[in-house]
Design a protein that fits this description.
Elements lengths: L2 H23 L2 H8 L3 H8 L2 H23 L6 H14 L1 H12 L21 H12 L5 H23 L1 H7 L7 H19 L2 H8 L1
Length: about 210
């Protein structure tokens, strides 16, 4: 393998093992063995376990950011973009599940705990969704309200995609309407309209002023 192929292989295996065992449970030795490389190769490319963990997080987020930006290349409506992001998560359910397992894995290791940069919208692709909201409603809502709507819509996309991607749920509840594409599209239409209408309403201002 070339150096780049070796690096990508290590990242791929590390993603699988960190998602399966968490930061503490996955060892550099196991990652090297599964990737078919020696420890020196892992240390050469990533220096240590913590750097490798961050590189896994960064590479997954960067890929999702890039892919979601491409989904918005034609400046679609918020409703259309929401559906596209959901479809993207479903098409790449294995990668998506691994990424969220890593993100949601709790750890007590102090050096792993890191806050998001100030002003970060949150999920990968959040800035893209926020831009779509800004195009659609302009200055009819405050910046804070639009950021809240972005996070809330993305949360619903993530929740539904995780549920639909669960093998256990698909096997035991696969006949419910939640798994029907038509129902999913209606759900996102209602969801987007509800959030965008709310942040443009007087009710938003009333709640914020409390």
């Amino acid at each position: 393998m070339s150096e780049n192929e070796t690096k990508l292989k290590i990242l791929s295996v590390a993603t699988e093992l960190f998602s399966r065992h968490g930061y503490e449970g996955a060892s550099i030795r196991e990652i090297a063995r599964e990737a078919g490389v020696n420890l020196a190769a892992v240390n050469y490319h990533f220096q240590n376990k913590l750097n490798l963990y961050y590189k896994v997080m960064d590479s997954n987020c960067e890929r999702m950011e890039k892919d979601i930006a491409e989904l918005a290349h034609d400046e679609p409506s918020v409703e259309t973009l929401t559906q596209r992001i959901f479809d993207y998560f479903i098409e790449r359910r294995h990668e998506m599940m691994n990424s969220f397992k890593i993100i949601l894995t709790e750890t007590d290791t102090p050096e792993v705990i890191e806050q998001l940069p100030e002003g970060h919208i949150g999920p990968p692709g959040g800035e893209v969704l926020l831009a779509a909201i800004e195009r659609q409603i302009g200055d009819k809502a405050t910046v804070e309200a639009k950021i809240w709507a972005t996070k809330s819509i993305f949360s619903q996309i993530t929740n539904l995609s995780l549920i639909v991607s669960s093998t256990w749920i698909r096997q035991h509840c696969g006949n419910i309407e939640l798994f029907e594409p038509t129902y999913q599209k209606k759900t996102f239409k209602h969801l987007v309209k509800s959030f965008l209408d709310h942040i443009q309403s007087e009710e938003w201002e009333k709640i914020e002023s409390v």
